[in-house]
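Lecture notes, continued. The same structure-token format from the folding unit now serves as the input rather than the output. Read the line below as a description of shape only.
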């Protein structure tokens, strides 16, 4: 049996974009979509869209395009979001509270199953029917919850300790909003989200000609 094809990370990121588009089209009862339509809606070139799908098989029909419901189900299965994914949220400050209330999470099968904080003023509070638990109970709580994913919405100086606690609790993938690098074992995957980094890149692309400083 040949080894599995390694899918480039940018392809996976684009698959998530296609998934969002297909979900919106399904909600609008749109039956089919062409690669040209995908380019129009996402800005991703039609040949790139077809190449991304080619890693996983043949999905479209010449002259017809892609069945929205079928392609949606296929990409959801590829990204393993065709089932409910329980998530632990660590940190219930402004960002954490906003994530709890974000409706797009459940629409795409992501469910924050429990929220944790180390601030006594936050522990015991409720956000959207979620009871904030003490971070010290993380491992015990996850033995019952069984989550493999976690979101870190904590300050930079707490991120490594929190990451270590998540690994000990059985977490395998983390979305890290803390503006710092965290070290994890090789079997654990981390995605870092930095608003400042993204803003800095956007700032670089500003046309500041004629602007006095």
């Amino acid at each position: 049996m040949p080894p599995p094809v390694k899918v480039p990370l940018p392809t996976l990121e684009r698959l998530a974009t296609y998934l969002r588009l297909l979900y919106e089209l399904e909600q609008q009862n749109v039956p089919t979509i062409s690669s040209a339509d995908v380019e129009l809606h996402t800005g991703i070139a039609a040949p790139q869209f077809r190449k991304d799908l080619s890693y996983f098989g043949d999905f479209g029909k010449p002259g017809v395009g892609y069945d929205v419901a079928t392609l949606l189900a296929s990409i959801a299965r590829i990204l393993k979001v065709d089932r409910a994914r329980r998530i632990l949220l660590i940190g219930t400050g402004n960002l954490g509270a906003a994530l709890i209330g974000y409706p797009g999470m459940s629409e795409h099968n992501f469910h924050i199953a429990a929220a944790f904080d180390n601030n006594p003023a936050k522990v015991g509070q409720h956000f959207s029917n979620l009871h904030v638990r003490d971070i010290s109970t993380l491992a015990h709580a996850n033995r019952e919850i069984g989550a493999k994913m976690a979101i870190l919405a904590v300050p930079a100086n707490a991120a490594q300790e929190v990451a270590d606690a998540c690994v000990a609790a059985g977490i395998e993938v983390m979305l890290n909003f803390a503006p710092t690098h965290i070290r994890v074992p090789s079997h654990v995957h981390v995605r870092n989200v930095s608003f400042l980094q993204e803003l800095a890149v956007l700032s670089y692309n500003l046309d500041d000609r004629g602007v006095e400083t």
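Point for the exam: The longest strand covers residues 110-117.
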